[in-house]
Amino acid sequence: MSSLFVRRAVRREIPEIEHLILAAFSPYRGRVSASAVLEAYIENSRDIASRWEAAEILAVEVNGRIGGTVTWYADASREGLNWPQDWAGFRTLAVHPDLRGLGLGRALVRECIRRSEQRGVATIGIHTADFMAAACRIYDSLGFRRIPSHDLSVSEALRCDPNAGDVLAIAYRLDLVKPFTESR
After folding, report:
1. Are 92 and 109 in contact (CB under 8 A)?
2. Contact assessment for residue 116 and residue 89, using Cβ atoms and an 8 Å cutoff
3. Residue 71 — φ and ψ, nearest 5°?
């Protein structure tokens, strides 16, 4: 890989990024028993235009081509998933299947961490799912820790019929600022 660059997306790239998100999440079809909930999640994730003003849509370029994306919230409460207002957050970490294993997802998460640190945010909160194993490995390796108290039902979050099955959105947090402790 010769050139990797993370930047803020521009509005005219919305269709390209939406297509990338669809390509990134399509491999999960057939692997998740709650297919109606998964489809609702994919459609919600692709709708980056609806969160354009509340968050920053980031893109990672590889040799001039958008290979991945993530939506970063300086104020995680704007995501609408009960995160505290003083936390940052991100969602829809997506890398094109043809470009997986090249570090694009990790570069996007590191950029979210950098932006959060730059703003003096103490904690980042995120949701993912067990079946997104590669993403979970990235979060674990970068120091994110599970917080089951913030897990949620995807069907409830997306207002889907829970009788069609459900997916648990598992929560993680990363503490960026160490609290001051006085030594004696």
Report:
1. no
2. no
3. -105, 120
In a domain, 157, yes or no: yes
Count structural domains, the chain.
Answer: 1
Token representation of residue 23: 């390509």
CA pair distance 87, 72, nearest whole angstrom: 11
Cβ count within 10 A of residue 16? 13
Q: What is the chain's mean pLDDT, rounded?
A: 92
Mean pLDDT across 131-152: 95
Range of the domain at 120: 4-175
- Asked if pLDDT for residue 180 goes beyond 80, the answer is no
DSSP classification of residue 144: -
pLDDT digits (tens, 9 = 90+) for 43-75: 999 999 999 999 999 999 998 899 999 999 999
Q: With 0-12 CB in 10 A as exposed, 13-18 as middle and 19+ as buried, what is 169? A: buried
Which pLDDT score is estimated for 87? 97
Sole residue written with tokens 């993680």: 172
Tell me which residue of 59, 52, 48 sits closest to 9, measured CA to CA.
59
